[in-house]
Design a protein that fits this description.
Layout lengths: L1 H4 L5 E5 L15 E6 L2 E5 L13 H5 L5 E5 L7 E2 L9 E5 L7 E2 L10 E5 L19 E2 L2 E2 L6 E3 L21 E3 L10 H9 L5 E3 L21 E3 L21 E3 L7 E2 L12 E5 L6 E2 L12 E5 L6 E2 L15 E3 L20 E3 L5 E2 L2 H9 L14 E3 L36 H52 L1
Parallel strand pairs: 3-4, 4-6, 5-7, 6-8, 8-11, 11-12, 12-13, 13-14, 14-15, 15-17, 16-18, 17-19, 18-20, 19-21, 21-22, 23-24
Antiparallel strand pairs: 1-2, 2-3, 9-10
The structure holds 2-acetamido-2-deoxy-beta-D-glucopyranose (6 copies).
C-alpha cells in the first residue's frame, strides 16, 4: 500500500541481502531495489556474490507487482541453487557472466512466472542442462510447466542438449545457443530443438557447425528468425527450406561460402530480411540466386571483401512483382553493376559505399538515368575508383558525355575521353564500325546492280499495288 501511494516515484532501497542456505555470509555489497510504477528491479550486479541469496523481505511484501527484473550480472556464482519465490506476472532473471558450472534440480520451480532467463557467459555444459531443470512445481504426480519465453545459453560449454530439456517450457520462443562448441547437431539435440514447437528465434551463431541435418527443424512450425553466422558452412543449408513457410529473417554472416547460387535460398519464399555479410571468401552471386525470395524487403549483401561479381540475372523472375525496398551493397569488392540487375527506381534505400566503382556508362545509367542517386542515405554517397580521371569523384557528380542518351535530364558535356572506355568496349566499337562499313559497301554495290535492272519493274508494281488498295476500299 505504501508503494501504491507513491506510485510513479522512484524508490531506491539499499538492502543488505542476507545470504541463505546456512552458508557463510559472503555478500560484499547490497543489492539495489527499485520500484517504478508496478515494475520492480533488483540490481545485484557486480557485487562479488558467490551464492544466491533469498530475496529481501521487501520483495515479498509488495503488492501489485507487475514486471520484476532481477540481475546478478558479473558476480562469481558457481552453483545455481533453487531460487525463492518471486511475485509478479513477468519475471526476468539474469545470471550473465558468472562462473556457473552446476544448476540444481528444481532451480526455477518457485518462479513459474519467469519469462526471461539469461545464463549466458558461464561454464555450463550440456550435461548440466538436465531435463529436471526447467520446470515448475511438482503437483499431483506431474511437474507444472513454466512460462519461460526467452532462454539465453550463449557463451557456455554446450556440446549437446538433453532431448527432454524443453519438455516443460511450452512457451519458449527465443533460444540463444550462440558461442557454444556444438560442432555437430546430434540426434538428441535435434530432438530437443524439435520439441520447442513455439520457437520463433533460434541463434546458432558461432557454434562451429558446418551442416544442419535435413530434419533438424521439423516441428518448428513457428520459426521466424535464425542466425547461422560465424560457423563453417560452405553452402547455405538446404534444411532451412523445411521452415521456408515461416522464416522471415535469415542471418548468414561470416561463413566460408565462395558463391551464392540458385540453390542457396530454395524454398525461402517468405523471407523478409536477408543478411549475408563479412563472408570473406564470397566471390560471386550467380544467376537466379535471389529468385526464390519472393517477399524479400531488405537485403544486406555487404562487407564481403572479395565479392566482385553479381550476375545481372541474380534477381531473375522477381522484377515484375518487386518487393525489395532496401539493398545494402556496401564494402564489397564490386566495380560494376549491370543496369538491369534490379528496377533501381523502386528501391527506397540503396547502399553502395566502400567498393571500387568503375564509373562507366552502366553506372551512370543506374545512378542518373534510373534515379538510384536519390536512394543513398545522407553522407553515404559512393565514390568512383576508376577510370583515373574520375577516381575520387562522387558517383552522383559524374556525367559521361559519350554515353547513349538514356535520359533527357542527362546533360551532354564537352570532352570525350577514351579513358572512360574499357579496352573491351574499344575493340567492339572498332569491330562494329568495320562491320558497318563492310556491310554498307556490299549493300551499296548490290543496290546499284538491282537498281539498274529492276528500277522500272518495281516502280510499276508499287503503283499497281496502290491502285489495288484504293479499289478495295472503294468497292
Ligand atoms: C513496466 O513494464 C511494462 C511492461 O514491460 C512497460 O510497458 C512499462 O513501461 C513499465 N513501466 C515503467 C515505469 O518502466
Ligand atoms: C547495478 O549496479 C551496478 C553496481 O552498483 C551498477 O554499476 C549498474 O549500473 C547497476 N545497473 C543498473 C541497471 O542500474
Ligand atoms: C566482471 O568483473 C570483473 C571484475 O570483477 C572484470 O574484470 C570483468 O571484465 C567483468 N566481466 C564482464 C563480462 O563484464
Ligand atoms: C503460455 O502462454 C499462454 C498465452 O500467453 C498462457 O496462457 C499460458 O499460461 C502460458 N503457459 C505457461 C506455462 O505459463
Ligand atoms: C578487390 O579486387 C581487386 C581486383 O579487382 C584486387 O586487386 C583487390 O585485392 C581486391 N580487394 C580485396 C580486399 O580483396
Ligand atoms: C561534386 O560536385 C560539386 C559541385 O558540382 C563539387 O563542389 C564537389 O567538389 C564535387 N565533389 C566531388 C567529390 O567530386
Amino acid at each position: 500500500m505504501y508503494f501504491k501511494r507513491i506510485r510513479g516515484v522512484l524508490v531506491i532501497l539499499s538492502v543488505l541481502v542476507s545470504a541463505s542456505y546456512g552458508q557463510k555470509d559472503d555478500v560484499k555489497g547490497a543489492c539495489d531495489i527499485t520500484l517504478r510504477d508496478e515494475n520492480l528491479t533488483v540490481n545485484c550486479s557486480r557485487r562479488d556474490i558467490s551464492t544466491i541469496p533469498t530475496w529481501p523481505e521487501q520483495i515479498n511484501n509488495l503488492e501489485q507487482v507487475h514486471d520484476v527484473v532481477i540481475t546478478f550480472f558479473n558476480n562469481s556464482i558457481t552453483t545455481l541453487t533453487e531460487l525463492s519465490g518471486v511475485r509478479g506476472s513477468h519475471v526476468a532473471i539474469s545470471f550473465k557472466s558468472n562462473q556457473i558450472v552446476e544448476i540444481e534440480d528444481d532451480a526455477f520451480s518457485n518462479v513459474p512466472r519467469m519469462v526471461y532467463l539469461d545464463l549466458s557467459n558461464n561454464f555450463i555444459t550440456g550435461e548440466v542442462l538436465r531435463s529436471e531443470i526447467f520446470h515448475g512445481p511438482y503437483k499431483n504426480g506431474v511437474y507444472d510447466s513454466i512460462a519461460l519465453e526467452t532462454l539465453n545459453l550463449g557463451f557456455n560449454e554446450i556440446h549437446s542438449l538433453d532431448r527432454y530439456l524443453f519438455q516443460y517450457t511450452p512457451n519458449l520462443t527465443r533460444l540463444y545457443l550462440n558461442n557454444n562448441p556444438i560442432e555437430i547437431l546430434d540426434h538428441v539435440t535435434i530432438l530437443a530443438l524439435s520439441s520447442a514447437g513455439n520457437l520463433e528465434v533460434l541463434d546458432l551463431s558461432k557454434t562451429d557447425i558446418d551442416t544442419i541435418p535435413l530434419d533438424a527443424f521439423r516441428g518448428l512450425a513457428n520459426l521466424q528468425h535464425i542466425d547461422l553466422s560465424d560457423n563453417r558452412f560452405t553452402t547455405v543449408p538446404e534444411s532451412l527450406s523445411l521452415v521456408g513457410s515461416t522464416l522471415k529473417y535469415l542471418t548468414f554472416n561470416k561463413n566460408p561460402i565462395v558463391k551464392l547460387d540458385d540453390d542457396s535460398f530454395v524454398g525461402l519464399n517468405n523471407l523478409i530480411e536477408l543478411e549475408v555479410a563479412e563472408n570473406d571468401y564470397l566471390e560471386e552471386v550467380t544467376r537466379s540466386t535471389f529468385t526464390p525470395l519472393k517477399n524479400l524487403r531488405v537485403l544486406h549483401l555487404c562487407h564481403n571483401m572479395n565479392l566482385r561479381y553479381i550476375s545481372h540475372n541474380a534477381f531473375r523472375g522477381l522484377k515484375d512483382k518487386w518487393t525489395l525496398k532496401e539493398v545494402y551493397l556496401d564494402d564489397n569488392n564490386l566495380s560494376e553493376l549491370s543496369t538491369d540487375l534490379m528496377p533501381w527506381s523502386k528501391l527506397e534505400i540503396l547502399g553502395m559505399t566502400g567498393n571500387n566503382w568503375l564509373c562507366n556508362c552502366d553506372l551512370a545509367n543506374i545512378i542518373t538515368g534510373q534515379g538510384a542517386s536519390s536512394k543513398f542515405k545522407p553522407g553515404e554517397i559512393p565514390y568512383c575508383a576508376a577510370p583515373m580521371r574520375l577516381a575520387g569523384s562522387l558517383i552522383t557528380n559524374i556525367t559521361i558525355s559519350f554515353c547513349p542518351a538514356f535520359d533527357k535530364t542527362f546533360t551532354p558535356n564537352r570532352g570525350f575521353s577514351l579513358g572512360n572506355l574499357k579496352p573491351k568496349h574499344v575493340i567492339w566499337s572498332i569491330l562494329g564500325v568495320a562491320l558497318i562499313v563492310f556491310v554498307g559497301m556490299v549493300l551499296g554495290m548490290l543496290a546499284k546492280g538491282i537498281k539498274t535492272v529492276y528500277v522500272k519493274k518495281i516502280k510499276n508494281a508499287s503503283i499497281r499495288y496502290a491502285n489495288l488498295k484504293e479499289d478495295a476500299i472503294n468497292a
